Amino acid sequence: MSPLVIFFASIFTNNMILANFLGMCSFLAISSQIRTSVNLGQAVTFVLAVTSAANWLVYHYILVPAGLEVYRFIVFIIVIAAIVQLSEMIIERYFDSLYYALGIFLPLITVNCAILGVALFMIIREYGFLQSIAFGVGSGIGWMMAIAMLAGIRVRIEKAPVPEGLKGAGIAVIATGLMALAFIGFSGIINIS
Amino acid sequence: MDYVEILQSVGILSGIGGTLALLMSVAKNTVGNYGECNITVNDDKVLEVQGGETLLSTLIDNGIFIPSACGGKGTCGYCTAQVFEGGGEFLATEAPHITPKERENHVRLTCQVKVKRDMKIGIPEEYLSLRQYFTKVESIVDVTDKIKHLTLQLAPEDAMEFKAGQYVQILAPEYENSDEEIYRAYSICSSPDVKDKLELFIGYIPEGIATTYVHFHLKEGDDLEIIGPFGHFFYQDTDKEMVMAAIGTGLAPIMSILRYMRNHKIHRKARVFFSARHKADLYMMEELLEIQKEIPEIEYYFSLTRPEESDNWDGLRGRVTDTIPQFIEDASNMEAYLCGNNAMIDAVIATLKEKGMPEESIFYDKFE
User: Fold this and answer.
1) Domain that holds residue A32
2) Structural domains counted in chain B
3) How confident is the model over B145-188, as pLDDT tens digits?
4) B19 min Cα distance to partner chain A (Å)
5) Predicted confidence (pLDDT) per residue in B44-95, tens digit
6) Residue A189's pLDDT band (boundaries 50, 70, 90)?
7) Average pLDDT, chain A
8) Contact assignment for B31 to A93 by CB distance below 8 Å
9) Is the confidence at residue A183, as pLDDT, over 80?
10) Which of B10, B95, B129, B293 has its CA 20 to 30 A from that of B58?
11) Averaged pLDDT for residues A15-43
């Protein structure tokens, strides 16, 4: 399958949030303002691009030859954590404005399930190196799109008469569900899962 | 599975972890190493520091104490300073603690700003002599039913240099009524000549976090952290006749000034107006009268606003604003030291101005 197809599929038909419901904690927690949610989305996209490449290399050049595939969960998590730390240091040093735009979000992303999800999916679906990177970047953009849309909805919901018990995360989950239903409409176009 | 395989897998996993750890420490020493940076403080002092840490911890390491209650987590909002150059962009984590007006004025939260390059910062002059002191509570004595007289023991090498009239902040730690550490200011009532001890008067305010802590939780022998000295209210070395006025715990800085005058045998004419509700609320009387014996130029005007029958009070009545005009006709060449709550200070300033005292001769410390 062409990396380009995987790229668009991971944005629209196989969106991390709307199709797989991964990365929900930060999705719900940091979606009250469009600006901050876009910043978080940028950070997720960046980390996904780097970690999907790194994890692919580690998996195929170290774990598979040594027959240690069962340890991929642990190894992926360590690699993600280390890369996030490293990229934070590099960005802080050389890319001032990007560092301030991402702010505290970068270190938080280590524990975003979508990141580990991408690493595991690319192994299960047996992607090649370029396919994995396309999948990582696409998933990141898809995640950013979903969180920005939810933030847009939540900004408006602020002023709406929401029942007391549904305020906050409750109505956000319902809104996410409706968005997911709308995105099912795309699912017939391409399917990569 | 034989042992070789087990050892091999352990080795490979440790190898991955170890390589990443090595990579991180290399990065920390190359990418994360910011080298020497110069911090110019108040256009005057230049600090040569190692970059990479937060501004707050860098300043503390260099002996400039910026108050912080949360220890650099960005939650208390105390550790502000002006950063004119080299502070980078304003961060989202600072926004809750810095008003838009302060932001325009270059105020930043020093625990969030990192030292990455040469910086220019501005901090209040008084912070430059600020320090943290770890004291031991030597004694707590009730001087009235609402005021406690605290004596704190400073470590021998920790002598505090301050001016008579200045104040310190004590740190009330977390306790049952309060889930965060807070700093509260109290005037020093001991003389600056006594280097190893510090005395404070602490009044009880219902629901006050620090006062409740001192009145009901702090015990003799406990440790108490303080920072200081603060304040622009202190003894001025002039020849003018002094007018001092105090109510309640406002006696503390006045006491410090009087003790200082006694220790230095400063024979300056001084009138001290001290007013309270009942006779039992006039405290430290014995020592005040002793000071008068040594410095006879000091005159006391004690007054009661609501003397009780049992007080047998035949002295002055009324507030300090009632007694001051009775004894002062022309205040134009006098100097005033006022200490009490907002309402009292404002009223006394108005009274003294009416008597011709110029505003620049009036020094005061408003207790909130």
Assistant:
1) 3-184
2) 3
3) 999 999 999 988 888 889 999 999 898 888 887 777 778 889 99
4) 10
5) 889 999 888 889 889 888 878 887 767 677 877 888 899 998 888 888 788 8
6) confident
7) 88
8) yes
9) yes
10) B95
11) 85
Same-domain check for residues B245 and B354:
yes
Give a yes or no: residue B9 inside a domain.
no
State the residue range of the domain holding B331: 241-367
Query: pLDDT by residue (tens digit) across B116-133?
Result: 889 999 998 778 878 888
Instruction: Say yes or no: B134 and B85 in one domain.
Output: no
The pTM score is 0.59
Q: CB contact, 8 Å: A33 with chain B?
A: no
B89 contacts A100? CB cut-off 8 A: yes
In degrees rounded to 5, what are phi and psi of residue B40? Answer: -95, 120
ipTM score assigned to the predicted complex: 0.77
Contact check, Cβ <8 Å, A89/B28:
yes
CATH of the domain at B279: 3.40.50.80
Domain of residue B224, CATH code: 2.40.30.10
Q: Of residues A189 and B204, which shows the higher confidence score? A: B204
Inter-chain CB proximity B16 and A100 less than 8 Å: no
Does the beta-carbon distance from B16 to A75 stay under 8 Å?
yes
Q: What is the dihedral of CA B15, B20, B24, B30, to 10 degrees?
A: 80
Q: Going by C-beta distance under 8 Å and a sequence separation of 6 or more, which residues neighbour residue B305? A: B275, B276, B277, B317, B318, B319
Measure CB to CB from residue A79 to each of B20, B27, B88 and give the nearest one. Answer: B20
Residues of B in contact with A103 (CB under 8 A): 91-93
B170 contacts B183 by C-beta, under 8 angstroms: yes
B303 and B339 co-located in one domain = yes
Q: Is residue B187 part of a domain?
A: yes
A33 HSE (CA, 13 A, CB side) = 5
Find out whether B250 and B365 touch, Cβ atoms under 8 Å. Answer: yes
Asked whether residue B147 falls in the same domain as residue B113, the answer is no
A90-140 pLDDT, tens digit each: 888 877 777 776 666 777 787 788 999 999 999 999 999 999 999 999 999
Does B12 reside within a domain? no
Based on the domain organization, do B267 and B342 belong to the same domain?
A: yes
Would A189 be classed as within a structural domain?
A: no
